[in-house]
Amino acid sequence: MSQPLVTFEQLSVSFSAERGRARAVQEVSFTLNAGQTIGLVGESGCGKSVTAMSLMGLLPPQTASIDGGAIRFQGQDLLTLSSSNMADLRGNQMAMIFQEPMSALNPVLTIGEQLCEPLIRHRHQSPKAAWQQAITLINRVGLARAESLMASYPHQLSGGMLQRIMIAMALSCQPKLLIADEPTTALDVTVQAQILTLLRDQARANQMALMLITHDLGVIAQMTEQVVVMYAGRVVEQGPTAEILHNPQHPYTKGLIASRPVPGERRRRLYSIPGQVPDLTALPAYCAFFDRCERASESCQTGIPPLVGRMRYVACYHCEKVGSLS
């Protein structure tokens, strides 16, 4: 079997906070193969974006600390690389689309200048060749008037157009991995569908691995082959998307799915998981979902449940058949 493109091995990340260290990611492990699409799902603050930013080497050094583990890209541990070596990879072999394209793009540089930069930096193209390639990229992501857009500034474009520009920039060097962090946030439904279709088509056309970060299970169902469910910085369930969405094992995953609106089904109120997400600076020494779980028992306070299984993985003491999951 070929080597995974990306491997997270027991990754732990914390941030300095007023009340101590916030343990944002704890012992996260999963793999992503070349050409595969995987989804990271969970509530805000569960560690999805921190996991991705750790991979890209974009955590703020003033407050963030890698407390343990490894992140391997094509077998190489990224956490051991220098900042210059990471800069050679970032935007070249791996790229990221951020949540807010308006804040991710430089407001004082034109779209053309920003699209040309990675082509000149990583592909060593001349400014003229990079300019022509950038026009091709704009056309490829479905935007008209490419020459005019190249001379525009970010504030002159709509959110949907900016998101397409971000996709064009991310794809410019034909990366092996693309991370999309909430790529349809604040976009209307029609534009959302267009952006997701564009991402899926480009991933298939370029045999590119795609890591999709979202809280929207509908997007997960539509786009991904594998899903990783995170809660309070830990992976609580992972496996094939269809199996997890149709037969969730962890109580948290079940709650997420139950809280989704179902087309054609009329309910007075949507289901809501009771309680609040725990304070990351004061996490218990047992299951972090204990106070919100409808199945909680004394056994849940004996320690942090391990993530176990085969093909399907679940971290819950109540999943008695987890060892036989396939």
Strand order of the largest sheet: 6-7-8-3-9-10-12-11
Mean pLDDT, to the nearest integer, reads 91
Provide the β-strand percentage band: 15-25%
CATH topology-level name of the largest domain: Rossmann fold
Give the name of the CATH superfamily of the largest domain.
P-loop containing nucleotide triphosphate hydrolases
Structural class of the secondary structure composition?
alpha/beta
**Could you estimate the helical fraction of the residues in percent?**
25-40%
Distance between the termini: 18 Å
- What is the tally of beta strands? 12
The poorly predicted ranges are 322-326
CATH class label of the largest domain? Alpha Beta
- Sum up the overall morphology in one term: globular
Overall tally of structural domains: 2
Radius of gyration: 21 Å
Largest sheet: 8 strands, mixed
What's the order of the H and E elements? Answer: EEEHEEHEHHHHHEHEHEEHHEE
Level-2 CATH architecture of the largest domain: 3-Layer(aba) Sandwich
Tally of helical runs: 11
Quick rundown:
This protein folds into two domains: 6-93 and 173-260 and 271-324, Rossmann fold (3-Layer(aba) Sandwich), CATH 3.40.50; 109-172, no CATH class. It has eleven helices and twelve strands. It has helices spanning 48-56, 83-89, 101-104, 111-123, 127-140, 146-150, 159-171, 189-205, 217-223, 241-246, 251-258; strands at residues 6-17, 20-32, 37-41, 64-73, 76-77, 94-97, 177-181, 209-214, 226-231, 234-240, 308-310, 312-314.
